[in-house]
Amino acid sequence: MIWCRHSQGTGRDRYHHGNLREALVEAVLDLIAERGPSGFTFAEVARLIGVSPAAPYRHFRDRGALLAEVARRGFRQFEVALMEAWNDGRPEPLRALVSCGRAYLAFAREQPAYYAAMFEAGPASEADADLAQAGERALALLRKAAEVLCAGQPENQRPPPRMVALHIWSLSHGIASLFLNGGEGSRQPLPMSPEDLLEAGILVYLRGLGLGGGDAIPPDR
User: Fold this and answer.
1) What pTM, to 2 d.p., does this model score?
2) CATH code that applies to domain 71-208
3) How far apart are CA 50 and CA 41, in angstroms?
4) Could you report the per-residue pLDDT of 28-43, keeping only the tens digit for each?
5) Cβ pair 19, 58 in contact under 8 A
6) What is the CA radius of gyration of the chain?
7) What b-and-e string marks burial along 113-145, b requiring 16 or more CB atoms within 10 Å of the CB?
8) pLDDT tens digits for 66-87?
């Protein structure tokens, strides 16, 4: 994968007294953009902002903790993006869910360094309660959308909303990984944009569950 991010400066001009924590986060984002989430050491983060190798330990116990902080921040931004896209199910739930999928791809395209920290860097979120909760809150937006879509089904035929949310998440993540930011699948020509591919996939999936109706998704453009 190729990460893209514009640096905010180099060396000591990146670090201002009393703002070391923020400078470390910014440095990590730039290093992820340049090398990926596993391509640098804790000492290199310190060197990039012009502080001693021991300085980052004032705020983070190790490199993994710093990456977890970056991932938490990414998930918070991601949650806001999904919430705005869902827009309380307006103009109607199916269109709003598709908007969530498009917001997923937009975040992966526009914030690739955060996205990589969220999904490609260790430690696993299960080892960090705050990080796990941040990811769960983002998933909760998709689960809420799924609950609204499933509510019209007879109870004995209603698929589990969390399962539906995880399937939509997986479909979105797969398309983002394959076709955005230089993924392997991007080498293959697509007959449609990643957004349109995802929209079609969501519609086919939901129709298979009896949730998508027989008509095309109402346009939002």
Assistant:
1) 0.83
2) 1.10.357.10
3) 14
4) 999 999 999 989 999 9
5) no
6) 20
7) bbbbbbbbbeeebeebeebeebbeebbebbbbb
8) 999 999 999 999 999 999 999 9
